[in-house]
Design a protein that fits this description.
Helix content: over 70%
Radius of gyration: 20 Å
Number of helices: 3
Oligomer: single chain
Shape: rod-shaped
Distance between the termini: 64 Å
Largest sheet: none
Length: about 120
């Protein structure tokens, strides 16, 4: 557990899924396919978060008692559980942010496409 860097993991878990999801969803949002863009962006966020959860799970639960004496103790398991739940919550927040971003992009595109001559 000594190689676990909590601030770096939280930064990666927060920023990487949002950036990747926005890049993937932007292609659909600009074409005014908001729902499809949200689905694709959410899938990208889900894939990244699942990868981070699996990586963290494997790191915490494959530790060796010979290398780290605190491995397998209740405190380590409690910390691992909190980190895994935190990663899942960050994933939900990332999806929520992307839904808002998709709505904002669609609203801007809709306002841009309305001409005063058409009214």
């Amino acid at each position: 557990m000594s190689n676990f860097d909590l601030p770096l993991t939280l930064a990666a878990a927060t920023l990487l899924p949002i950036v990747l999801g926005a890049l993937v969803g932007l292609r659909f949002w600009r074409r005014r396919r908001v729902i499809l863009g949200n689905v694709v962006a959410s899938a990208a966020v889900g894939a990244v978060i699942l990868f981070l959860i699996a990586q963290t799970f494997g790191m915490f639960f494959s530790c060796s008692v010979d290398v780290d004496p605190s491995c397998g103790t209740q405190a380590t398991l409690d910390f691992a559980t909190r980190v895994l739940i935190g990663l899942a919550l960050v994933g939900w927040v990332d999806v929520f942010v992307l839904m808002i971003l998709g709505g904002v992009i669609d609203d801007r595109a809709r306002k841009r496409s309305v001409r005063m001559e058409d009214l």
